[in-house]
Design brief:
Elements lengths: L12 E5 L2 E5 L18 H6 L4 H12 L5 H13 L2 H29 L1 H25 L3 H9 L7 H12 L4 H32 L4 H19 L16 H4 L4 H24 L6 H19 L7 H11 L2 H8 L2 H29 L5 H30 L6 H14 L25
Antiparallel strand pairs: 1-2
Length: about 450
Amino acid sequence: MPASTTTTARAPRMTVTGNTLVLAAAPARSARSPRPGRGPQGPYRRLFALPGARGFTAGNLLARLPMGMFGVSAVMMIAGQRGSYALAGAVTATGLAATALVAPWTARLIDRHGQARIAVPATLIAVLGSLALIACVRTGAPAWTLFAAYAATATTPNIGGMSRARWTHLLRDSPASHHTAMSFEQAADELCFMLGPVLAAFLCGAVFPEAGTLAAAALLLTGMLVFTSCRSTQPPVTAAPRRGSPLRALGPLLPLFLITGVIFGSMEIASIAHLDARGLGAASGLVLALQAAGSCAAGLLYGTLRPRSLKACVCALAVLMALPWAAAATGSLPALACALLLAGMATAPTMVTAMSRVHALTPEGRLNEGMTLAVTAIFAGIAVGAAATGWAVENVGPTAAYAVPTAAALLALATTVPGRFMRRPSDHARVVRTAAARDPQ
């Protein structure tokens, strides 16, 4: 017989399934620690209300800023002291190649033994490599020593990947807040790669040639120590055997990251060459900063919206990446600046959504390795894009060189059409939630 019941805000809820009575208690709410995705606060305020989130984020930002400083600082220091941009470029290219080889192994060790145990010693090795590079440049050591010293910086841990792993651990029951966190991380990437080169160029030019490398090394070590000291948010290390290969799991997705890197590398070189040809080389930094600013703003905004499918994001990328080519053909600097701003706004949603697919596809316990493979693919694409665009500038002209990022964006769209990993991030989430724990959309 039906019976009347009295319920309260915290009363258990009953559901009958077949012959089974399921009793689910409503989650208790804490006044001090608001649940992600709940309450009247904005999504970012809820995000940083989590215990320990502000601490590891502060260390993350300090350690991430040098990622945009090391390359520019090394080029300006070596070229200034040795008088050879060819040598400076070769040294930094060697460091990039070494990072592509070493970074996945460093990430694997972090997954296996924990962030603090591996990241701090790896950072110390990288800092010593930077100091050795300064010493070799200052003392006039043979050129091969510069290559060896800079290659040691390849042990620098992927701080962005470790921070994303912490958010994934903290927000494993809250996909909506996890999306906001990934958007914040992408915006932080853009901000640091926008400010890092500017700070490095100022220090090397206004203070002394080695100042950029010294400041970058100090920021990296300080930020990593602050980040790893926040032990409460560190993902736990499990003794269970790790099954599955991140490389195999992410195989269909890595070409997209590679092509995205081509877009980044080619757009930068094409813009610098185009502005230099018009006698506006000094303005290239400010114009390029608009692209990063657009991506940073779009990333923060995307974090407050419902995530879209990767295919939709790449479609927008393919359309907007054609704008700089069209704007450059008009010869108008304001038009080019606006086009770069709009093109930058398409990259952040694509990267956020693609990284969410990395989280969903990477085998359990190997998340840092999976994300580092994605970042390595981006770095490789940047190198390819820069080389291809340099050839295009020399052979077809700086304006036509904008065809390289446009073609790369169309190729990225072609890779997403047949893929099974292009759905909305929540479609394949490994998180299992009850109705009481589900985020509002």
